[in-house]
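Lab notebook page, bench 4
Experiment: in silico fold of construct C2
Operator: M.H.
Input chain length: 274 residues
Purpose: comparison with the prior construct
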Amino acid sequence: MSAHPLPAAALPAAALAEAPLLRRDADGVATLTLNRPVARNALSLGLMAALEAELHAIGQDPAVTVVILAAAGPVFCAGHDLKELRADPSRAHYERTFAQCSALMLAITRLPKPVIAQVQGMATAAGCQLVATCDLAVAAAEARFATPGVNIGLFCSTPMVALSRAVGRKPAMEMLLTGDAVTADRARELGLINRVAPADRLAAETEALARQIAAKSPLTLAIGKEAFYAQAEMGLQSAYDYASETMTRNMLARDAEEGIDAFLQKRPPVWQGR
């Protein structure tokens, strides 16, 4: 598997079935599809590395404004590949696996483009972490979310980082300590996901949200996403100081001038990305 997977349309059927990660671009939206349905889209080292590399490539691609992270088959992501983990029970292998996972999650957060999870089924352990890390998430009504590591003697410590930043402390602890799955509706109440859609409308509603966002200034989206995560880690005074400087820098951008002038002149804006 190369670091940059070919677009799905460019792959023959046999290769399409074997490629662990697929990419499709349309209207400023890149859809990345986890394609290990037989393995419940478990995050093998190869899949995590391929996904991280593709995110870095998208970060440099001016034709893409928004990313959708989807998955093939009935399960969104079952977390780490436990068979791969136990195939080499060494400290070095475990450290390499969890470091790769952390690098992937940071790549999503640091990507200067919004990432939307499209969750059609179960998202467990590092799969739940993946959903919590994405900027937005739309789930099918049948989707379920869990951090069940405690049930097999492996506390979901790295998923905890993303989960505890997406939902309140007590709901996060309940999920982590019990391992119980929560429904899509409950996940929305907790703030883990944004929207719940019927299964047959999931892709359409996710794409509609992605295209709505993709119509905005790509520069403004990049500034806003970076600022959102940066200020969240600061104290209140520091956050306001940082946000004020960010607003000033944003106001000096050509797209802000264009957007405000277009609003005052009652016409659609023409974004230049600068």
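Observations: The chain has two domains: 8-214, 218-264. The domain at 218-264 is CATH 1.10.12.10 (Lyase 2-enoyl-coa Hydratase; Chain  A, domain 2).
Next step: discuss at group meeting.
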